[in-house]
Each structure stands twice: as structure tokens, then as C-alpha cells.
């Protein structure tokens, strides 16, 4: 470090504040005097002037008329090669120390730019160095400058902490975006199926209308044809009647002639009186004339009349045809009305489709692009060497859980100690420690073994006491009893490992129960709901060889899960059959309930848990559809539960209501309404499911 002295002629003073020359002195004989500044005496209060270790230059106000003795912290080169004072006599130049600081800052920034370093922290470092040099040279202002720097550093650290605390919001934002995409896709699928169904129904109705139109035309054609045939038959009957009448008249005429001839011959033979015969003939002719007149009258009056039997048959047939036509006309009117309604519905559906398409377009413009998960392999090859086999068949949400689990495991293995969370009431009882706790780096096998032992002992103790104890208190008592002084390390290591294991449902669910995010009954139903199925299969196994027939397995499934549908039972049977070996004829049920050392279940148990989750979700969806978006009272929720599950018993119903409103059974009537979101958030943490049988489609 060197000293340099620059002497220039001062220009006339034009500033409002007149700074006098402050005599340089040292408050401490051992202190290094780096810079000496000589100014005119200022007109300020002498109480504000401390014994100066360094003095500020008022460049450019004092210009070239100052004598500056500078300390050079930024370079080791010879700084005496300065310009001549004569060259700067008529110019206002910067102090040498300021020029060297600026030169040092430019070199550092240029080196960072040439190295392609984009980190703001690295670019800030040269400025910190220059500020440190500046503080070291100006001893008088060093406390104030240090305070300013420290305050800025504390503010930057606080901002970093806030940024780090907002990091989880990114993951939550991605999860919410994906969930929204799924919901939108599901809505589109439902709308697409509904539109397709309506189109199919419209097409079928149009075909039915065409068929009815054809039947109507056919019936009209048949009526016209029958009328033509009736006219022909009527004409034939009339002609036949006229011919019959003429034939009868001819036959009567012949009979009369034969009778006259026979009478005339008889009279001739008998010798009858011709006068009598003439009178009789005259009377007969008069009767014949009357008969002929009557016959002509009857023929004129009833010549067009058909037989009553034919008339009645035709009348019945006509009435049947008229009735059919009226029914067809009524059906046609109804179909036309339905067709008009369908056209209106179709128009509404088209409008909704257009609005949905527009919303889809807007969402596609504003949605977040789906991540390329293959980049993880390139960035973290040591962590994701098993990525291909772990990520196969998983959704984006599951891949995020897998990524967080792998990264959390990596970070957890690098920690040697956990900071103590304190002993306040807001800290869980099993984490109340003031001092740092050693990280035991537990494996999943060790964690799963401890969890199984905790649950086993807790179930035994609860059954003995007849009541359910608190899991956090039982856990800390168990760890203290088993591990003694090492129990804090086990407690923190167990807590942290369970927290990051998002892909291991059994281990992470233990953490949720421990933190009060899940009810213990829900955990038992989720991970031990198959125990009664094991008992039923064991009772059905008469040969005690660990296997049952497929029909026995189906019967026991229906007996153990009466609320499952036939499709659910068939899915469980298919899952069990998929684990059969080629030489197995019966189902070895004991192998279906196996778990590995890390708590990962078999395929059959995975299908059973997925059905359990889907049934709970469907149950809550049905309740939400009934309740709507209005505030919910206990009576409203009770009515909705009874409508969805009429077979539920009173004790279970009261437990559901108390869990939904977070109050005892006695206070349900006096409780205030809650929002549906709060109701279902409370119900999702407890074991709610449909108790009655599922109606088959």
C-alpha cells in the first residue's frame, strides 16, 4: 500500500458550505493514517468534528486546488506515475483514490462479464470490496458506514429468507395448475360425451320421425286402396243385384206363362167357363201390375244398399284406421315438439361449446407449459439414475412428489445436525428441543420398522385402556423408553424422514397423523382395512394351505366389502389373479397382503387402497353436489348424508357431523353455519365412507 500526494491550485470557492482545512490528527498513535485531506476551515459547529483519522474530499467543488494524500488499497503497482500538476492546473480532476476505486471496480466487473457469470451475488461482491476499502480509509466515518452496510446486509438476508420461504409456493402453483388442467379436461370430456349422446339421440329421433312419416304415407295409401276396392265391390254387388232382379222377373214371367198355359189347357179339358177364366186372368194381371210397381219402388229405394254385415265390417275397419291415424297424428305432434325442443337444446349446447372453446383457447394461452421431466436426469445424474424405472406410468403430481422425495433425501443425508425448534406450545411435543440434534440418517427400512412397532404397541395400549391416546405423546414416550438419551435424534430424524417421503404413503401418512393433518381412524382404515378380509379368507381356508378357490375368494370379497360394486369386486379379483403363478389354480391369499421392508404394498393392496380413496372421493362429491355453495348447517349436512347413504347408523352419523363442525355432539344444534369448503376440509381428514350397499347400474 502506498501514499500519493497531489498538489493543485484551488479555484475560487463557489459553494454555500465553506469547509475549512481540518488538521489531520490521530486518535490512536498506533492507527494507520491512510489519507490526508487539507481544506479551508468550514463554518460548522466544532462539536460535530471528531479527531479525524481520515477526511473526505469535496471534489469537484474544491477542484484542482486540493492537496490529497491517498491510501491505495486496490493495487500494488507504482502509483507515483501521475500526471503533471501543470497539465491539470486549468482542469477539475477527480481524486486519485476515487479514480483507482473506479478502475478497480471496472476491472472486476469486466472479469465477471468475460467469465459469463450472471449471478447477482458475484456482481455485488466487487462493490462490497470497494465499500470495505472506502470504510477502512475513512476511519472517522467508518462506524456510520459500517452501520449502513450492516443494515443493508441484514435487509438482503431478510429478503433472501422471504424468497426462500416463497419457494414452496412454486410447487403449490404447479400442483394447482395441473389440478385445474385435470378438472378442465374432465369437464371437456363430460361435455364431449354429453354432446355426443345428444347427437346420437337426435339422430335416432330423426330416424323415428322418418319411420312414422313412412308409416303414415303407407296407411294413407292403404286407405285409398281400400276405398277403391270398396267401390269396385259395391259396383259388383249392385250389378249382381240388378242381374238377379232381372233373372227373377224372367223366371216369374215364365212361371206365369206356364201357369196360364196349364190353366188354359185344364179348362179346356174340364170345360171351365171362359168368362170366369177371363175375370181371373184380369185379377191376376192387376195383382201383377201392383207387384211390379212395388218391386220397382223397392228397387228404386234400395238399389244402392249393401248388406248390413258388409257395412258393419267396413265400418269397424274404418273406425280402426281413423283411430290409428289419430294416434299417429298425436305422436307426430309430440315428436315435432320434442324435435323443436332438441333444436333449442342443441343451440344452447352449441353456444356453450363455443364459450368453452373460447375458454380453452384463453387457458391454453395462459396456462403453464408442462415440464420436461427428462431434464432431471441430465441435471442430477447421481440422484436420478433410477429415474426411468421410478417415473414409469406416473402423473405430473406423482413425479413432483418423487422429485421432492429424492431431493429431500439427498439434502437430509448431507445434514449433520437439526436445529432445535424450541420448547414453546406451538412446537409439537416430540420436537421440543433447544439445542441442535444429531441427524441419525435413518434408512426407510429402519423408519418403517419403528413405525410398525409404534402402531403395534399403541393399538395394544389403547385396547387395554379402552380409549384412544395421543400419537405424539405415545411416540415421544416410546422413543424415550427405547432409546433413552438418543431419543431426540430419533424423534427429529424420524420426523424429517417421514416428512419428505411423499411417495411412500404409509410413512408419510404416519407424519400426517403425527402432525394432526389426518385422523388416526382414517389411517387405520387406509392401511389396515384389509385385516378383516384376511380373517374371512383364513376362516374359508378349510385345508389351511394358504389358498382358496376363485369362487370362494369372490364370496369372501363380497362378504368383507358389502358396499363395493360388482365392478370393484371384479377389479380386486383381477388384481389377485395377476399375481398368480402359472402353476397355481387356486389363489394364494397370504401373498396378496405382503409388504416389502420399506412399507411398499403389493399390487392387490394398492388396488384396494385406490378403491378406498375413490369411494371416499365419490362420497364427498355426492355430498357437495347436494349441499351446493350456500353456508351449511348441521341439519342440512345430516339431510344430505341420509340422502346419499340411507343405511348409515345414528352413531356414525353423529360422528360425521361432529367431525365436520369440530364440536361435540351436544353442541351441534347451537352451532353456526360453516362454508362448504371448511366442511369438506374437515371431512377429508377423517374416515368418512358410504356404509350401505352400492346401487348396481
The value of Rg in angstroms is 54 Å
How many domains? The number is 4
Poorly predicted runs of 5 or more residues? 1-90
Largest sheet: 3 strands, antiparallel
Strand segment tally: 5
What is the gist of this entry?
The chain has 697 residues and is an all-alpha fold. The protein has four domains: 3-165, no CATH class; 169-351; 415-518, no CATH class; 531-684, no CATH class. The protein is built from 21 helices and five strands.
Q: In words, what does this structure look like?
A:
This protein is an all-alpha fold and 697 residues long. It folds into four domains: 3-165, no CATH class; 169-351; 415-518, no CATH class; 531-684, no CATH class. It has 21 helices and five strands. The chain has helices spanning 96-114, 120-137, 142-165, 167-270, 274-302, 308-366, 375-379, 387-390, 396-414, 444-465, 471-483, 487-500, 505-514, 520-528, 531-540, 550-560, 566-578, 603-627, 634-644, 650-661, 676-684, and strands at residues 3-7, 36-38, 67-71, 417-418, 437-438. The radius of gyration is 54 Å and the shape is elongated. The two termini are 92 Å apart.
Amino acid at each position: 500500500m502506498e501514499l500519493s500526494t497531489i498538489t493543485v491550485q484551488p479555484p475560487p470557492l463557489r459553494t454555500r458550505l465553506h469547509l475549512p482545512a481540518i488538521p489531520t490528527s490521530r486518535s490512536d498513535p498506533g492507527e494507520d493514517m491512510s489519507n490526508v485531506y487539507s481544506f479551508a476551515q468550514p463554518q460548522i459547529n466544532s462539536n460535530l468534528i471528531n479527531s479525524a483519522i481520515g477526511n473526505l474530499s469535496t471534489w469537484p467543488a474544491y477542484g484542482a486546488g486540493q492537496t490529497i494524500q491517498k491510501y491505495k488499497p486496490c493495487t500494488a503497482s507504482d502509483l507515483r506515475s501521475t500526471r503533471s500538476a501543470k497539465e491539470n492546473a486549468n482542469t477539475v480532476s477527480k481524486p486519485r483514490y476515487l479514480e483507482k476505486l473506479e478502475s478497480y471496480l471496472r476491472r472486476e466487473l469486466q472479469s465477471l462479464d468475460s467469465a459469463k457469470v450472471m449471478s447477482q451475488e458475484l456482481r455485488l461482491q466487487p462493490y462490497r470490496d470497494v465499500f470495505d476499502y472506502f470504510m477502512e480509509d475513512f476511519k472517522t466515518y467508518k462506524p456510520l458506514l459500517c452501520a449502513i452496510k450492516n443494515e443493508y446486509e441484514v435487509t438482503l438476508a431478510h429478503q433472501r429468507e422471504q424468497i426462500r420461504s416463497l419457494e414452496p409456493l412454486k410447487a403449490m402453483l404447479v400442483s394447482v395448475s395441473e389440478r385445474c388442467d385435470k378438472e378442465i379436461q374432465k369437464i371437456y370430456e363430460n361435455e364431449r360425451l354429453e354432446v355426443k349422446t345428444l347427437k346420437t339421440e337426435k339422430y335416432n329421433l330423426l330416424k323415428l320421425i322418418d319411420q312414422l312419416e313412412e308409416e303414415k304415407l303407407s296407411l294413407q295409401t292403404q286407405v285409398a286402396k281400400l276405398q277403391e276396392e270398396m267401390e269396385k265391390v259395391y259396383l259388383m254387388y249392385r250389378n249382381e243385384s240388378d242381374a238377379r232382379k232381372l233373372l227373377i222377373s224372367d223366371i216369374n214371367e215364365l212361371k206365369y206363362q206356364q201357369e196360364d198355359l196349364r190353366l188354359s189347357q185344364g179348362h179346356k179339358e174340364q170345360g171351365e167357363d171362359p168368362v170366369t177364366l177371363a175375370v181371373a186372368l184380369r185379377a191376376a194381371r192387376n195383382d201383377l201390375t201392383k207387384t211390379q210397381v212395388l218391386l220397382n219402388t223397392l228397387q228404386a229405394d234400395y238399389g244402392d244398399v249393401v248388406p248390413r254385415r258388409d257395412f258393419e265390417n267396413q265400418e269397424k275397419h274404418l273406425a280402426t284406421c281413423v283411430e290409428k291415424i289419430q294416434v299417429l297424428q298425436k305422436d307426430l305432434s309430440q315428436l315435432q315438439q320434442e324435435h323443436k325442443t332438441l333444436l333449442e337444446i342443441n343451440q344452447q349446447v352449441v353456444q356453450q361449446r363455443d364459450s368453452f372453446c373460447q375458454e380453452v383457447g384463453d387457458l391454453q394461452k395462459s396456462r403453464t407449459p408442462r415440464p420436461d421431466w427428462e431434464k432431471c436426469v441430465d441435471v442430477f445424474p447421481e440422484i436420478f439414475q433410477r429415474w426411468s424405472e421410478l417415473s414409469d406410468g406416473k402423473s405430473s403430481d406423482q413425479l413432483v412428489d418423487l422429485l421432492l422425495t429424492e431431493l429431500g433425501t439427498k439434502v437430509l443425508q448431507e445434514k449433520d445436525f437439526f436445529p432445535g425448534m424450541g420448547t414453546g406450545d406451538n412446537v409439537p411435543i416430540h420436537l421440543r428441543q433447544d439445542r441442535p440434534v444429531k441427524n441419525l440418517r435413518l434408512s426407510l427400512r429402519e423408519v418403517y420398522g419403528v413405525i410398525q412397532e409404534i402402531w403395534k404397541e399403541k393399538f395394544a395400549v389403547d385396547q387395554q385402556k379402552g380409549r384412544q391416546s395421543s400419537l405424539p405423546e405415545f411416540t415421544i414416550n416410546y422413543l424415550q423408553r427405547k432409546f433413552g438419551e438418543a431419543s431426540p435424534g430419533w424423534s427429529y430424524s424420524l420426523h424429517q424422514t417421514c416428512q419428505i417421503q411423499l411417495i411412500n404413503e404409509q410413512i408419510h401418512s404416519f407424519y400426517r397423523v403425527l402432525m394432526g393433518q389426518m385422523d388416526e381412524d382414517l389411517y387405520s382404515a387406509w392401511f389396515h382395512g384389509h385385516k378383516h378380509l384376511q380373517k374371512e379368507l383364513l376362516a374359508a381356508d378349510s385345508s389351511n394351505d394358504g389358498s382358496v378357490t376363485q369362487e370362494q375368494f369372490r364370496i369372501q370379497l363380497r362378504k368383507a366389502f358389502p358396499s363395493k360394486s360388482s365392478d370393484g369386486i371384479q377389479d380386486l379379483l383381477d388384481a389377485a389373479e395377476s399375481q398368480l403363478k402359472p402353476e397355481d389354480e387356486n389363489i394364494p391369499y397370504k401373498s396378496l397382503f405382503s409388504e416389502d421392508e420399506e412399507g411398499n404394498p403389493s399390487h392387490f393392496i394398492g388396488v384396494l387402497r385406490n378403491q378406498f380413496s375413490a369411494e371416499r372421493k365419490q362420497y364427498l362429491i355426492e355430498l357437495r353436489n347436494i349441499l351446493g355453495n350456500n353456508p351449511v348447517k348441521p341439519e342440512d349436512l345430516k339431510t344430505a348424508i341420509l340422502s346419499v347413504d340411507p343405511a348409515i347408523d345414528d352413531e356414525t352419523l353423529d360422528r360425521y357431523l361432529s367431525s365436520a363442525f369440530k364440536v361435540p355432539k351436544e353442541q351441534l344444534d347451537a352451532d353456526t353455519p360453516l362454508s362448504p369448503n371448511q366442511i369438506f376440509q374437515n371431512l377429508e381428514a377423517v374416515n368418512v365412507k358410504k356404509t350401505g350397499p352400492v346401487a348396481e347400474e
